Amino acid sequence: MSLEAAIGRVDQILAYQQALVDPGSLAAASSGSSSTGFAAQLASAQGTQSSGAVAAAGDTSLTPFTSGTVPTSLGVSDVGSTSGLSGAARMLAAAKAAVGGTYSQANHNAVSDTGSQIQQLGTDCSGFVSYLMGPNGIGDWSQSYATPGIPTAPGIQPGKGSYVTIWNNPNPGDAGHVWIEILGQYYESSGSGGVHQMDQAEVNQYLSSGQYQPFHPAGM
Predict the structure, then answer these.
(1) Which of 19, 54, 181, 183 is the 20 to 30 Å CA partner of 163?
(2) What is the CATH classification number for the domain harbouring 39?
(3) 46: domain range?
(4) 91 burial class (0-12, 13-18, 19+ CB within 10 angstroms)?
């Protein structure tokens, strides 16, 4: 399968996933608008992140998508499943659907929430990542994990992923924090901004601290 065909297929998967989260988006997807399609997001990620990876203490540079390089391992197995490129597309759609929620430790157990529920109830940093790893994301987790438990949570492997990297400070409570990179875009739930897409300055600040360890979902 060619790269163009694979990305076209993921476009369809992402549209269906977005329709599950936000039924009103189905009409927009079927109208032929490409502004919210995965291909457009990928192009945007490649264009806006073309300045290269961020360097920090040790090897903390970001994934290949940060430098605008499409991984060469893309194949048929990456499409139509909850791993690889299509799994990352599901996570990206889920992250976008939750943007706008407040930071709330009261709703830490957000693993089974929808994007609309997180917008209404909010969640904390690890609750947000748990939601992306849960049934409305890639479906690997059935419970929420706090920062100390993320390194050994189901389906998590050490190191940076090709499509998704979870950057985790494993300290407990308020001393820890976790945020996520999906296809060259960065998201978190924080006390200063709630659930939001991060800018490069935030990413640089976190990585330069040297406190964040990279992990990734298996196959991603």
Answers:
(1) 19
(2) 3.90.1720.10
(3) 3-217
(4) buried
